[in-house]
From TrEMBL, chain A:
PANTHER family recorded: SUPEROXIDE DISMUTASE 2, SUPEROXIDE DISMUTASE [MN], MITOCHONDRIAL
Family annotation (PROSITE patterns): SOD_MN
Protein's UniProt name: Superoxide dismutase
Family affiliation: Belongs to the iron/manganese superoxide dismutase family.
Catalytic activity: 2 superoxide + 2 H(+) = H2O2 + O2
Domain of life according to the entry: Eukaryota
Organism annotation: Guillardia theta (strain CCMP2712)
Known function: Destroys radicals which are normally produced within the cells and which are toxic to biological systems.
Metal-binding recorded as keyword: yes
UniProtKB/TrEMBL annotation, chain B:
Manganese/iron superoxide dismutase N-terminal domain span: 26-118
Top-rank lineage group of the source organism: Eukaryota
Record function comment: Destroys radicals which are normally produced within the cells and which are toxic to biological systems.
Known catalytic reactions: 2 superoxide + 2 H(+) = H2O2 + O2
Pfam family, one: Sod_Fe_C
Residue intervals of the Manganese/iron superoxide dismutase C-terminal domain: 131-228
Coiled coil: none
Protein name, entry field: Superoxide dismutase
Length: 229, 241
């Protein structure tokens, strides 16, 4: 009687391990394609930077994220909390890197495809003017705050769902904007890899030029979605 | 009498000027030519790194020091010297903390960094005081470099990797710090060797290939200077400046 009970409980625990392992298996993250050629953002961001930024940096975040998630899956199946906690840094870095860059490529477009915010979405343009007085004032404040980021990070235009207002925010490293409780609308990468080959230490110059390739249509689409959500 | 008084005024003015100029930190010269670390570290990087980045940190920290000096309450802070200030950031008014931490840290870190390197490096000596400590505490110089490389590789974002001496225990350890923080922010912790892992330190030559940059650095480490720095640090818990 006792031995049969043991066999049963072993089978049950084996089944539940398999089940939780199956539940933990996730589809792998993949590197999204650029919506344009590597040279499409010239002369603002050159082809060499785009090739490396997308093909090396973003690709590495995706690979490392997948590796970390696989380990997390195993740890979850084993209920190994210590490992789960130890993996959180890697998931934050690489998951954040993947999220941020996926938005970034969409936030930019070739110079010839750029339209003003007022043309992309009059409501967005009005909201910017209402908040900062003018588009130029907004860009000035955005650039000042983003240039001042210590080390690596991102400058963001975000949407605050509680206040229903637009906000400028900065994040360190690859921390996603959701950590500040905002919906990301427009992000500008100021890790040195985003501009160094072309602008070297002149981060303010990069920030001055990048506005020439901001895709306000994409920013507006995100704004509309954020307002509805 | 008038002439004497005028001379006195002039003398005081000159002293005042000399003092305020002396109170400004200066950009140290590199111990070698800009192309001196080729082919391991490229000339262009050395130029931008020294004249662009290090100079910018210098301007930032001198600006903060000047502001601290101009206010009677904060004047004593300015007199502390940059090393001590970095150990006492909690005493600094909030608006000055970030520029001091980043500008001051950036200034001292690069001040040390240039001295960690020399054309083609110099030999590590197993038999000197430093060499014996490395063997005793890490097993070998190879083991030290392996750990150094691992930590340098794992660091996320901008920062530095360091070999540090903790003065009271005489313990050597390897650590990383974010942005321009320095181990010297803790009293008694003296950086002996440092590697800049901000992307600006390697992007022009190596792009995203940090591993290659670490290898290049290993080829130019001035072990002689590092050993001397270690021996000096053993004597007194003081940093570079």
């Amino acid at each position: 009687m006792f031995r049969q009970g043991n066999k049963l409980s072993t089978s049950i625990s084996r089944l539940s391990t398999l089940a939780s392992r199956a539940a933990g298996v996730r589809a792998k993250s993949t590197l999204p394609s650029l919506p344009y050629d590597f040279g499409a953002l010239e002369p603002v961001v050159n082809s060499e930077i785009m090739t490396l930024h997308h093909g090396k940096h973003h690709a590495t975040y995706v690979n490392n994220l997948n590796a970390a998630l696989e380990k997390m899956s195993d740890a979850m199946a084993k209920q190994d909390y210590a490992t789960m906690i130890a993996l959180q840094g890697a998931i934050q870095f690489n998951g954040g890197g993947h999220l941020n860059h996926s938005i970034f490529w969409q936030n930019l477009c070739p110079v010839k495809d750029v339209v003003a915010p007022s043309e992309a979405n009059p409501e967005l343009a009005k909201a910017i003017e209402g908040q900062w007085g003018s588009l130029d004032n907004f860009k000035t404040e955005f650039n000042t705050k983003t240039a001042a980021i210590q080390g690596s990070g991102w400058g963001w235009l975000g949407y605050n769902k509680q206040s229903k207002k637009l906000e400028i925010a900065t994040c360190a490293n690859q921390d996603p904007l959701v950590m500040k409780g905002l919906v990301p609308l427009l992000g500008i990468d100021v890790w040195e890899h985003a501009y160094y080959l072309q602008y070297k230490n002149a981060r303010p110059e990069y920030l001055k030029q990048i506005w020439q390739v901001v895709n306000w249509k994409d920013v507006a689409a995100r704004y509309e979605a954020a307002k509805k959500a | 009498m008038m002439a004497a008084a005028k001379m006195k005024v002039l003398f005081v003015c000159v002293c005042f000027l000399a003092q305020s100029l002396a109170q400004n930190l200066e950009l140290p010269r590199l111990p070698y030519e800009y192309d001196g670390l080729e082919p391991h570290v490229d000339e262009e990087t050395m130029r931008v790194h020294h004249l662009g980045h290090h100079a910018a940190y210098l301007a930032t920290v001198n600006n903060v020091l000047s502001m601290l000096r101009s206010n009677e309450t904060t004047k004593p802070l300015a007199k502390m010297g940059i090393d001590k200030l970095l150990q006492n950031l909690d005493q600094v008014p909030t608006e000055h903390v970030t520029p001091l931490r980043n500008g001051g840290g950036g200034f001292v870190n690069h001040f040390l960094f240039w001295k960690c390197m020399s054309p083609n490096g110099t030999r590590f000596e197993m038999d000197d005081v430093f060499g014996k400590a490395v063997t005793a505490q890490f097993g070998s110089i190879q083991a030290l470099l392996q750990e150094f490389r691992e930590k340098a590789t794992k660091l996320f974002g901008s920062g530095w990797t360091w070999l540090v001496l903790e003065h009271s225990t005489k313990r050597l350890y390897i650590t990383t710090t974010p942005n321009q923080d320095t181990p010297a922010m803790q009293v008694g912790h003296i950086p002996i060797l440092g590697l800049d892992l901000w992307e600006h330190a390697y992007y022009l030559k190596h792009q995203n290939k940090r591993a290659e940059y670490i290898s290049s650095f290993f080829n130019v480490i001035d072990w002689k200077a590092t050993a001397a720095r270690y021996e000096e640090a053993l004597k007194q818990p003081k940093t570079e400046l």
